[in-house]
Design goal:
The protein is of the alpha+beta class and 207 residues long. The protein contains five helices and ten strands; from the N terminus they run βαββαβββααββββα.
Length: 207
C-alpha cells in the first residue's frame, strides 16, 4: 500500500528562518546529505500540459492531484531522479525512479521515450501521459535547502532559501542557470514533513 505523509509549507521571513535554524540545531540532526555549510542545492524540472492543468490544480487545491518532476542535487549528474508526487486528502505520497543523463536530455527536449519491458513503471506512466495528455517540461525551480531529520515519526524539517525559477528548460543540466526569484525579498519557505505524528518537542521548537 502507498504510504502517505503529512506535509505542511509555511512562508517565513529571513528573521523567522534564522530563529528556527537556531532552535532546530539544538534538538535535531542535519540530514546526512547536507554539505559542510549544512545545506545542499535542489533543482527540479516540472512537467505540465498545454493547459497548465497541474499548475491550476495546485493553485485550486484540487484533490487528488499529481505532478511529475526530474530532480538533481548540488548540480551533480551522478544522481538524477524522476519523481511523481500525489496529494490526496491533505497528505502526500511520492514515488521515484532513476534516470540516465541521456533519458533526461530526451525528456528535457519533450521527446517521448520508447516504452520497453525494462522501463520502470513510473517512467512508463510519464511516457504515457506525454503521449495522451501532451505533458512537457515547463519550468525549473532551484533553491538552497537546510535539512533536519528525526527518526521517530520519520520527521523532516527543511528551510528553503533563495528560491528561483526559470523557463529555460534546456539549461536544466547546466552547472549554473539564470533564475528569477519566486518569493518577495525577505521571504523564504519552511516545510514540515512527518508520518503519523510530530513529536511534541519539535512542534514546540517550531512555534
Amino acid at each position: 500500500m502507498a504510504k502517505y505523509r503529512n506535509e505542511w509549507k509555511y512562508i517565513c521571513s529571513d528573521w523567522d528562518l534564522k530563529l528556527l535554524e537556531s532552535r532546530l540545531s539544538g534538538v535535531l540532526q542535519k540530514d546526512k546529505h547536507a554539505g559542510g555549510d549544512g545545506s545542499y542545492s535542489v533543482r527540479s524540472l516540472y512537467f505540465d500540459d498545454m493547459d497548465n492543468r497541474c499548475f491550476h490544480e495546485n493553485e485550486d487545491g484540487t484533490d487528488p492531484r499529481e505532478k511529475f518532476r526530474i530532480r538533481i542535487y548540488n548540480h551533480s549528474l551522478d544522481r538524477i531522479t524522476l519523481e511523481c508526487k500525489r496529494k490526496e486528502r491533505g497528505k502526500t505520497h511520492k514515488v521515484s525512479c532513476p534516470l540516465t543523463v541521456e533519458q533526461t536530455r530526451a525528456l528535457m527536449a519533450g521527446k517521448v521515450l520508447p516504452i520497453g519491458e525494462d522501463q520502470p513503471p513510473l517512467l512508463r506512466k510519464l511516457t504515457l501521459q506525454m503521449m495522451t495528455r501532451k505533458l512537457r517540461p515547463v519550468v525549473i525551480v532551484e533553491y538552497e535547502r537546510i535539512p533536519y531529520v528525526y527518526k521517530n515519526g520519520n520527521v523532516r524539517i527543511t528551510l528553503d532559501t533563495n528560491i528561483a525559477s526559470s523557463s529555460a528548460v534546456e539549461t536544466f543540466l547546466d552547472p549554473h542557470i539564470s533564475g528569477r526569484p519566486v518569493l518577495p525579498v525577505g521571504q523564504q519557505l519552511l516545510e514540515v514533513k512527518y508520518d503519523e505524528y510530530l513529536p511534541d518537542f519539535i512542534y514546540r521548537s517550531l512555534m
